[in-house]
Amino acid sequence: VELEIEEKIEIGINIEKIKKMITMISYENGVVKIYGKIESIDEDGYTVLRFNDSIIPFIMKKTDIQTGEYVCLSLKKIELYEIKI
Q1: pLDDT digits (tens, 9 = 90+) for 29-74
Q2: What pLDDT does residue 85 have?
Q3: How many angstroms separate the CA atoms of 9 and 20, rounded?
Q4: How does strand 70-75 pair with strand 24-28?
Q5: Taking the model in full, what pTM does it have?
Q6: What are the phi and psi torsion angles at 9 (to 5°)?
Q7: Is the Cβ–Cβ distance between 78 and 26 less than 8 Å?
Q8: pLDDT class for 27, splitting at 50, 70, 90?
Q9: Cβ distance 58 to 74 under 8 Å?
Q10: pLDDT at 3
């Protein structure tokens, strides 16, 4: 499955640092929460979140979040697509 995040990710709005080293997805009060580890951040904001053996790419506005930190994304909507192999 391919997961697509269309929202712009911005600290204080829909991404926050967390202290726990967890990777999981939950649904709470109409919000999809994705917990994982930041694997990389490019200069243009292209960010890769490590989620167990998978990665979730998204665009993040400038932030103080660093590679290696664990975060929680709080999203109103995600798109899931089947990948045919």
Answers
A1: 999 999 999 999 999 999 999 989 989 999 998 888 999 999 999 9
A2: 72
A3: 20
A4: unpaired
A5: 0.88
A6: -95, 125
A7: no
A8: very high
A9: no
A10: 85
- DSSP label of 68: T
pLDDT at 41: 95
- At position 23, the amino acid (one-letter code) is T
CB 22 within 8 A of CB 34: no
One-letter amino acid for residue 64 of the chain: D
Q: Which residue has the tokens 């999203």?
A: 75
State how far the Cα of 78 lies from the Cα of 75, in Å rounded to an integer.
Answer: 7
Contact between 67 and 41 under an 8 Å Cβ cutoff? The reply is yes
- Burial of residue 5 (CB within 10 Å: 0-12, 13-18, 19+) is buried
Q: Please tell me the distance from the alpha carbon of residue 29 to that of residue 10, in angstroms, as a whole number.
A: 20
Cα separations (Å) of 1 from 10, 27, 66?
25, 18, 27
Instruction: Name the one residue in this structure whose structure tokens are 């932030």.
Output: 63
